[in-house]
Amino acid sequence: MRNRNIIHESKNRLEDLRVDRDLKQEDVAKVLNIHQTTLSKYEKSTSINIPLDILCKLADFYETSTDYILLRTDEIKPYPPKNN
Q: pTM value?
């Protein structure tokens, strides 16, 4: 049951990030090039498999880290850019 709670909380975190920015699901879905209903499923935990490329795009869009979205940290700031 613990994993289910983590999944649910991470999806709520996605919704919180969007709502905090006064964005509609349609706005974010358009940026991600996905359907609004798909984003809704990610936010509401009806789909637990967010593709890695979408997860990374979400983190970039919300200026956070994938670890924040996945509840691996409570630090909302993104990681510093990688130096090449």
A: 0.80
